[in-house]
């Protein structure tokens, strides 16, 4: 590589694929990165672009919402683990792949343009496009005004605070309508995110009721709305039926083949005609490709994901790579010729490593035709249904209850990046088993300047009459 120009690798996205790709590249291209840092010919520079300075380990969000794990321990600081990479906090708005330039909006460009959102050009030699996905919403009346997402750590902690605040409202009101709405919690979506979030928060809320003199566990009402005929399809039909019985056995109202038609005026109206006044509506009904994919000019499939070869290169495009939620990667282990890998964390982590190895090979001079294709048989799935409860379908074996819950924790502890995070999460699990749950709501964190603004006179004090 001594006679080559320095390679600039741009990784768009700091999630599963972005983080694990950059970690692997750091290891594979250690010498080239050193030369790149010194400005020497033949060096390599890696830039990781993401709106947040951390990677969120999303399988731990339900436990963070329930208070079993501290929020700061479900995120991995990019600058700490990617020491040999340049971290840019910003978002790619569009790509000009012919010129190999990304148009990027950063906090600095927003400040410099007075909030108008200007962009700067970031050049690259090789592009890894892994922005992940965004929540898929539907034009349901009232959803934008009253819905709560569950995809980021901020949303998870905000939901925890919100649920505990509803108990405070119910405990302090004399209006039966307000009380019933505060104690009704509606979750839309019966996949991993919806079921695990509901199960963990239901556990937490019923536990918290023991500290309220006039709110009992039997007063709470949890409702799960799912458009298909089953929940948790990832764990198989038998385990899905068990999960359904488990939830209904906990007095959770599960409505299958039912849709949310409206949530205007804080009333969840379902397709079966029922109406449920509620102050809590959590939307976990799937995801869709990140908008940058449509603005990239790269080949997409009918679902808006990048068409990729088994080597993780974007089809019919040189110097562009992708994996994870953003990519439609052929599943070489499936019987069907047109089968694609499921867009889940299990494939994303393994695809990222293969992508990084193939990219490193190309940087080191390996012809594209000699790259190794991605091949991985699906191992199975695990899901938590709250403390000491779960379901699992792994390598053909079906587990439920405590063994499945233990496997869920063990698997995700092994997958979370860095020894530092593994040790902290394990320590918190041990401590949470020895001591009582934390049930404090810190909702004021969402408006940290409110009290100071009131003291300074910029906002009127609350009416106490």
Give an account of the 3D structure.
Keywords: FAD, Flavoprotein, NAD, Oxidoreductase. Residues 8-337 form the FAD/NAD(P)-binding domain. By secondary structure, the chain is α/β, with parallel strands linked by helices. It has 2 domains: 7-135 and 288-370, FAD/NAD(P)-binding domain, CATH 3.50.50; 143-285, FAD/NAD(P)-binding domain, CATH 3.50.50. The protein has 15 helices and 24 strands. The protein has a 7-stranded mixed β-sheet. A 5-stranded parallel β-sheet has the order 10-17-11-12-13. It has a 3-stranded antiparallel β-sheet with strand order 14-15-16. Helix 1 (16-28) runs parallel beside helix 12 (345-363) and helix 7 (153-172) runs antiparallel to helix 8 (176-182). The longest helix is centred in the middle third of the chain and has 20 residues, at 153-172. The relative contact order is 0.14.
Can I get a quick summary?
The protein has 465 residues and is an alpha/beta fold.
Strand content range? 15-25%
Biggest pleated sheet: 7 strands, mixed
The radius of gyration over CA amounts to 24 Å
CATH level 1 class label of the largest domain: Alpha Beta
Biggest sheet: strands side by side, in what order?
A: 7-6-5-2-1-8-20
The number of helical segments is 15
Counting structural domains, the number is 2
Fraction in helix: 25-40%
- Overall CATH architecture of the largest domain: 3-Layer(bba) Sandwich
What is the overall pLDDT average?
90
CATH fold topology of the largest domain = FAD/NAD(P)-binding domain
Q: What general form does the structure show?
A: globular
Low-confidence stretches: none
- Cα separation of the termini: 77 Å
Please state the structural category: alpha/beta
Total strands:
24
- Give the CATH H-level superfamily of the largest domain: FAD/NAD(P)-binding domain
């Amino acid at each position: 590589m001594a006679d080559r120009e320095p390679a600039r690798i741009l990784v768009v996205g700091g999630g599963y694929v972005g983080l694990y790709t950059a970690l692997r590249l750091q290891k594979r291209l250690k010498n080239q990165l050193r030369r790149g840092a010194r400005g020497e010919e033949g060096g390599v520079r890696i830039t990781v672009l993401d709106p947040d300075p951390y990677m969120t380990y999303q399988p731990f969000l339900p436990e963070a919402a329930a208070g079993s794990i501290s929020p700061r321990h479900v995120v991995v600081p990019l600058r700490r683990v990617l020491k040999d990479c340049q971290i840019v906090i910003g978002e790619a708005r569009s790509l000009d792949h012919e010129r190999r330039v990304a148009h990027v909006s950063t906090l600095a460009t927003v400040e410099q343009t007075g909030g108008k959102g200007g962009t700067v050009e970031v050049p690259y030699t090789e592009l890894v496009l892994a922005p992940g996905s965004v929540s898929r919403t539907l034009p349901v009346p009232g959803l934008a005004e009253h819905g709560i997402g569950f995809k980021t750590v901020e949303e998870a902690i905000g939901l925890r605070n919100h649920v505990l605040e509803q108990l405070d409202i119910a405990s302090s009101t004399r209006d039966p309508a307000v009380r019933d709405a505060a104690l009704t919690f509606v979750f839309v979506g019966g996949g991993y995110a919806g079921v695990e979030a509901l199960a963990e928060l239901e556990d937490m809320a019923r536990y918290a009721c023991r500290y309220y003199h006039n709110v009992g566990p039997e007063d709470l009402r949890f409702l799960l709305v799912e458009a298909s005929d089953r929940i948790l399809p990832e764990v198989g039909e038998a385990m899905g039926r068990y999960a359904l019985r488990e939830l209904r056995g906990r007095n959770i109202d599960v409505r299958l083949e039912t849709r949310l038609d409206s949530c205007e005026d804080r009333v969840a109206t379902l397709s079966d005609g029922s109406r449920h006044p509620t102050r809590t509506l959590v939307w976990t009904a799937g995801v869709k490709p990140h908008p940058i994919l449509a603005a990239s000019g790269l080949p997409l499939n009918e679902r808006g994901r990048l068409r990729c070869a088994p080597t993780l290169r974007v089809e019919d495009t040189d110097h562009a790579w992708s994996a994870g939620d953003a990519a439609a990667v052929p599943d070489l282990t499936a019987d069907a010729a047109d089968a694609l890998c499921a867009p889940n964390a299990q494939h994303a982590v393994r695809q990222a490593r293969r992508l990084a190895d193939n990219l490193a090979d190309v940087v080191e001079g390996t012809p594209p035709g000699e790259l190794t294709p991605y091949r991985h048989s699906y191992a199975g799935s695990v899901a938590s249904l709250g403390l000491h409860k779960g379901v699992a379908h792994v390598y053909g074996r079906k587990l439920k209850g405590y063994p499945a819950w233990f496997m869920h924790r063990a698997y995700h502890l092994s997958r979370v990046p860095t020894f530092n995070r593994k040790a902290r999460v394990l320590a918190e699990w041990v401590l949470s088993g020895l001591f009582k749950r934390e049930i404090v709501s810190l909702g004021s964190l969402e408006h940290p300047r409110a009290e100071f603004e009131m003291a300074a006179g910029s906002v009127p004090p609350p009416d106490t009459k």
